[in-house]
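anyone else get weird line breaks when pasting these?? whatever heres mine. first is seq + tokens for prot A
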Amino acid sequence: MKNIVTILLIALSFTANAQEQKIKPTDLPADVFAFIQTNFKETVIKTASKETKKKTGLSTYSVVLENKTELAFKDTGSWKKIDGKGTPIPVSLVPTPFWDYIKKNYPQQEVTKIDKGPEEILVKLVNGTELVFNIHGKFVRVQKVEVIEKSDK
């Protein structure tokens, strides 16, 4: 019984810490909306949501596009994650030091995901390989290698 009460309290603390609500695309911050309009002209916003942390009052925004690309933005409006769900994202969104490294070491690959952490940035390639860079753009390591073979069927 004690374990159940503990689990319930933990679950309640997570839900009480942040509130997520669906919003209209037009309710996104102007810089977030402009970023999407500039970089993803070929698709439209399918869903948008805003999550506000109760302790800090800071909000993050999540967007899913019709082409299934998922975007996450900080309260400041800067992006923190772009996930093409296996589909290449625009090269213009890949920071130059990362793209230079990728062109040199993985010339046939495109980027499908970029996820900015506080100290490292994960970049996923079309073949499933995950590269980790530091926040200054220096390559750190290969985190995962996943070869995805395409069939000719």
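and prot B, same format (seq, then tokens)
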Amino acid sequence: MEREIKRVLVVDDEQNTCDMLTEFLRSSGYSCASATDPAKALAILKKGDFEFVISDIKMPKMDGLQLVSEILKIDPEIDTIMMTGHAGVYTYVDIIRAGASDFIAKPFQLQELQAKMERIDRERKMQRGLKQMAEELRKSRDELESRVEERTAELEKANEELRQFPSKLIAAQEEERRKLASELHDSIGQSFAAVKYWIEMALKLRDAGDCDAAINQLQQFIPILQRSIDETRNIYMGLRPTMLDDAGLLATLEWLRQECMKLYPQRHVELEVGVSEEEIPAQFKINIFRIAQEALNNIAKHSKAEWVDISLSKNGGRIELVISDDGVGMDLDLISQTSAARSLGLTSMRERAVLSGGSFSIESILGEGTTIRAFWPIETEGQFQKGETTQLPALSNF
């Protein structure tokens, strides 16, 4: 904030000079004090807030040049004007180099002194303005450099993730194959082995002439065969539910809700729909389903929730999916620093949303539950149809 000239200290070993200058300055609107001794003047400056000192140079004990040096130690912002009747002894160069703002030779007109004070005040204000501008420019430069560094780091991170994407894609394919192989081995493979055993037993009974026992044997493996059919359906529904193509996303989400409640009857799952099937772009449907599926799997395994809400709606120019529960919640900061994000499927959910042109966020409070949000701009549909590309945001830790 600019400091205006309000208080002036007059220093001269002649009392008459102090009184004359003080009276003139007060009549010109300044608040004044005076001292006939440099030591007293320094004591006054230490106690008060002065903007100007008008001092004689030739004084006993301490001359004006020494006084200027001591004044600047107290407050380097104080402006000083030196007065002297010995212009041949003290040069203008000596006075300015000592730190004074200006010099006036006795005798002088009081209006000349006032004009010098006004000029010095204008120059001081200009200096302060330039200093403030320089400080603002420095802050702007620092902020710009900081933003450039942050953006550069973001771009480097995005480039690194893009470089890693092919290997991640291969790893994801291998993981899907591993899961499929494990499911085929643990479910259908064992079921078929059991079916083979029951058929062989029935054939042996038939060859032995006991047809009734053979028929009874065949009837007993019908539930095993039905379980194999159900397990096969679960596997291909997991790979890609045919219902998604046949009945649409909304019907498939309702099927997912019912399946979740069948497997976990202690949890109540609600589905709220605020969008029609025709309003959802086709390229988003599989990703919406997969994110909802993964979220429900996480809730079932980890949340201990009693109530789950699934909401799919159209808000403005975007499709929004929100899945919330009242479970135990999670520490997102801790998860982001470990591999837990990937094991919980948070990374895959985010990648599905981002790589399909959308955004993903998760909020969680320990003891209060978790909310997952994903949304996709509907305008992206037209871009895909025209063959345009959409710049994707960088993927975070999860």
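btw re prot B: Residues 110-207 form the longest helix (98 residues). The two ends are 47 Å apart (CA to CA).
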